Amino acid sequence: MTDYLREQALKLWNYHHINHQLEKADAILVLCSHDLRVAERGADLFLEGWAPLLIFSGGLGVITKFMWSEPEAELFARIALRMGVPAERILIENRSSNTGENVLFTKQLLEERNLNPETFIVVQKPYMERRSFATFKKVWPEKHVIVTSPQDSFDIYLSMYTNPALTPDDVISIMVGDLQRIKTYPDKGFQIQQDIPNDVWVAYEALVKAGYDRHLAPI
């Protein structure tokens, strides 16, 4: 990757972060994926006392269905258990295959358990903070939500990425695809609208032109 393209990718990385400050909440909702560091971040937050309930949401998604045979949430929950989270404080939603379903199926699961958390900490990959917030507020607008992720810099995240099946170029392509979805998904009813600064969109177009287009959604 050239210095110029790295600079463009960093613009997307920074935009995807919404930099919420942590607040104590009723539940921590971990949106599962191929990134096991997200499981560790969720467990750490629980063990630090930010919320009394830890929810893992994820079946097999577009990427993980080619990597694993068990639901993401089951794998993530085992990581939390090994880290010392009590089993009785964990809920698992293992059917969802995208972010909207993560939120919707978690909402249904909590209703079935007669649980009604009012405030959530959502834990997601660093480059999916903004899209997770926009999706949660569309699906469950009456709840208060803040979003966080593993606390790594762009370069550290790429160099220490926890899943060797994905290269740094793959991660950048996923970031590009997520920005496209931030722009197009509100019109589909999947997310609330998010402003995209012009320089961020220019960076997106430069990365697409350079070939980081493997995770774009069909238009």
TrEMBL record:
InterPro entries tied to this protein: Cell_Envelope_Assoc, DUF218, Rossmann-like_a/b/a_fold
Source superkingdom: Bacteria
Entry GO terms, CC: plasma membrane
Domain DUF218: 26-144
Protein name per its UniProtKB record: YdcF family protein
Pfam families, alphabetized: DUF218
